Amino acid sequence: MRRLLTVMVALLLALTGCSATSGSDAGAEPSGGYVGHERAAGEDGTATDDAAAGEESTADLDEGGLGGEASGDGESARQVITTGYVSMTVEDPRQAARESARLVEHVGGWVEQRSETSADGDLDASALLVVRIPATEVTTTLERLEELGEVQQISQSSDDVTAQSQDLDARIRALRTSISRLEALLERSGSVEEIVEAEQVLTDRQSQLESLESQRSRLSEQVAMSTFELDLWSTPPSAIEARGGFLGGLSTGWDSLVSTLAGLSLALGVLLPWLILLGLVALVAVAVRRRLGRRQTATAPSAAPSSPPEEPSSTQP
Questions:
Q1: Of 141, 143, 151, 191, which one has the fewest beta carbons inside 10 Å?
Q2: pLDDT of residue 254
Q3: pLDDT beyond 70 at 81
Q4: What does pTM read for this prediction?
Q5: For residues 64 and 61, what is the distance between their CA atoms, to the nearest angstrom?
């Protein structure tokens, strides 16, 4: 009996590994040799019940909706991830951002990211939102958003991930069937070594299943909730166009002159208090120096005039 269980575990490792990696055929059942081995292993009919339980779990998975909504002909519906970008001109970007958020939340979505900028000098007011909209409400929501202002740009893209979804579904089905059969083997436990080996394989299969289910869940969430970026402006970015010709150059030069003078005025305003302070310090230093010079001149002794040197007398030969 121990040898038989050892052989069963070894064959189960090889066959379930092939079944998990070949899961790209969506809806495919485990190979006949695998099921036949399970049936031969149990003379009392329990293996047949385990195989049936595995088939029932596969059917439950199909009904659970991991493969998307079923169409009329029994095939999985297309899985599409939709993303988009909308740029609009509105009177008040902050107010429009609040209305956009309420509109998205009303249809079952949410705001994932939001930033607002108030008008400051030449900088116009703007708001940026990243929203998640139910895929079934994208068209209706975009039509309502267009009523908030004037649309400057709109773009939308779709990524078909049906094949990826079906591959994940098939691999999940294969792993669930494998786990079900491993649990059945543990119930007919043999030696301690066989139990430990089977539990290690079961733990590995469960870890793989959790990873695949997590990937499938994220994919389903991206399919169900479309991502859109809303860019709201009080003045469209394209409103200020480049001007050419003599007048355009003159206007550009004048703007540059005004900006330069404004910068110089700002620098002068910053430096003026320091210049005044340095000037006062310089005046005090000059006054002190002059006063000290006068005192030194008044107290210095008068020097006696020096007699001119005598000329050497010339001797005649």
A1: 143
A2: 76
A3: yes
A4: 0.51
A5: 5
